[in-house]
Design brief:
Layout (H helix, E strand, L loop, with lengths): L1 H16 L1 H9 L6 H11 L6 H18 L16 H10 L2
Helix pairs in contact: 1-2
């Protein structure tokens, strides 16, 4: 997961410097397969992010949070959406 965070940081720096890249990434939300489109753009700009990396990082992050809250039992708070690295990344891009 740390490697993915570093790659997303690198991509964010590129997007800050390149408004065309930023817009392309934001427009992936309109694609019928947004994660796939996002990853294709990443690869085109030299950042190796894969669909499974995004999915697994979100799952790992969520699992870590669940384990750290009340021993990970059923009383753990629901953290819906907090594990979506794609959406979190795009939300950060919107604020640039």
């Amino acid at each position: 997961m740390n490697e993915l965070v570093e790659l997303l940081d690198e991509l964010q720096k590129k997007a800050k410097a390149d408004p065309i890249l930023r817009e392309k990434l934001l427009q992936t939300r309109e694609n019928p397969n947004p994660i796939h489109a996002f990853c294709e753009i990443c690869h085109a700009y030299g950042v190796s992010i894969y669909e499974m990396d995004l999915a697994m990082a979100g799952e790992e992050f969520y699992a870590e949070i669940k384990r750290s809250t009340n021993g990970g039992g059923e009383n753990s708070p629901a953290l819906e959406g907090e594990d979506d690295f794609y959406e979190l990344f795009l939300a950060a891009l919107e604020n640039i």
